[in-house]
Amino acid sequence: MPKKPIIIGVTGGSGGGKTSVSRAILSNFPDEKIAMIEHDSYYKDQSHLTFEERVSTNYDHPFAFDTDLMIEHINELIAGRPVDIPIYDYTQHTRSDKTYRQEPQDVFIVEGILVLEDKRLRDLMDIKLFVDTDDDIRIIRRIKRDMEERGRSLDSIIEQYISVVKPMYHQFIEPTKRYADVVIPEGVTNTVAIDLINTKVASILEESKKA
């Protein structure tokens, strides 16, 4: 029976710095078997909908995610079996026909806006982090990212933020802060918090090697 991997959940609002925090942890353990799994990879397939319907989907609601599949995959990885993770096409607003093979690791970072929302997923995690960043910083980052990486217009980003992203943050994402073991104000620039988490992960890894 393989050793159970360490599962670290990293959540917070869109543009809050979740990915930067996750990468800071990843980069601190270059010699370990460590990988990140993004909840965004598990957006539901929407190929049966028209493009207009896909565009108007609420992507910040728990129903937008195939969390059942993510839980199934993490359980497979815990059992030491590889999985094929979906690849989401942001330009087409649906799942692509491609996947990528994820092999078992010693540490998995499970990252996404709603990874602490589902109790079944939370219960698989050893460490739960909430990256807490002001709304104004998050919208600026989201505008920059969506224009540069996802080809979105400024008007569409602002409209989506006001009508969906912000209300969903306050309804579904912010309340999951109470499940976090550690709340990290300002994300990756909070080097004290990042150092503490890296120290904790290192000690767990060290213990698991002795076991």
TrEMBL record:
Residues 7-192 form the Phosphoribulokinase/uridine kinase domain. Pathway: Pyrimidine metabolism; CTP biosynthesis via salvage pathway; CTP from cytidine: step 1/3; Pyrimidine metabolism; UMP biosynthesis via salvage pathway; UMP from uridine: step 1/1. It is found in: Cytoplasm. ATP binds at residues 12-19. GO terms for biological process: CTP salvage; UMP salvage. Gene3D superfamilies: P-loop containing nucleotide triphosphate hydrolases. Keywords: ATP-binding, Cytoplasm, Kinase, Nucleotide-binding, Transferase. It comes from the Bacteria. It catalyses: cytidine + ATP = CMP + ADP + H(+); uridine + ATP = UMP + ADP + H(+). Its EC number is 2.7.1.48. One of its GO terms (cellular component) is cytoplasm. GO terms for molecular function: ATP binding; cytidine kinase activity; uridine kinase activity. Pfam families: PRK (PF00485). InterPro entries: P-loop_NTPase (IPR027417), PRK/URK (IPR006083), Uridine_kinase (IPR026008), Uridine_kinase-like (IPR000764). NCBIfam families: PRK05480.1, udk. Belongs to the uridine kinase family. HAMAP family: Uridine_kinase (MF_00551). PANTHER family: URIDINE KINASE. This is Uridine kinase. It comes from Streptococcus vestibularis F0396.
